[in-house]
Write a structure and sequence with these properties.
Elements (H helix, E strand, L loop, with lengths): L1 E7 L4 H13 L3 E3 L6 E9 L5 H12 L5 E11 L7 E7 L2 H14 L14 E7 L5 H9 L4 E7 L1 E8 L6 E9 L4
Helix pairs in contact: 2-3
């Protein structure tokens, strides 16, 4: 099964507006469904179902000493680059706790036989995927909103999700939830 670890994000009014704006641009720009908004801490990929309990243990250990916190959602950007974007994202600021948890996840997952992540962790919230050369309106929109604030998000739990890719869009099912340690 295809899996990843993430924090679910409830869309703020500002995020909903951005998703609506991206839907209006249309064409190859495919916004994420509101209910699928999340900040990925670790994409795991295909694993055997028998490994899920061990991955969940790593997740639980990784958040054991972390208190709930808030992040600021600010500014639009793209991966890999503006000339040929594949992902439109919102930046995540004050994300040091996410970076710490991601490092702990990495330390725990590699011994399970899950290959190490090749790219450094860059917390972001994916808003849309771009399937082909985007219309010019996307570039203009990105420039207009490179410093826009999209509100805050509370991070109180992380999830191990199963991801099923479907023609109508991805379906994410939480397999396990790990609550961050209360005060």
């Amino acid at each position: 099964m295809r899996t990843f670890i993430a924090a679910h994000i409830t869309p703020t009014p500002e995020l909903k507006q951005a998703l609506d704006d991206l839907r209006e641009i249309g064409g190859p720009v495919k916004p994420v469904a509101d209910e699928n908004l999340h900040i990925t801490l670790r994409f795991i990929g295909e694993i055997d179902e028998a490994l899920v309990p061990s991955v969940n243990e790593v997740l639980l250990r990784s958040v054991a000493n972390q208190r709930p916190f808030e992040v600021l959602l600010s500014g639009l950007g793209v991966f890999p680059h503006a000339a040929r974007p594949a992902i439109v994202w919102v930046g995540v600021r004050f994300a040091e706790p996410l970076t710490e948890i991601a490092a702990e996840l990495e330390k725990g997952l590699v011994p399970l036989g899950i290959p190490a992540e090749e790219r450094p962790f860059r917390p972001h919230l994916t808003l849309a995927r771009v399937r082909a050369r985007p219309p010019r309106e996307l570039g203009t929109y990105l420039q207009q909103h490179e410093k826009t604030k999209y509100g805050t998000a509370s991070i109180a739990e992380l999830h191990l999700f199963r991801s099923e890719l479907r023609p109508e869009g991805a379906k994410y099912t939480p397999l396990h939830t790990a609550a961050l340690k209360a005060e």
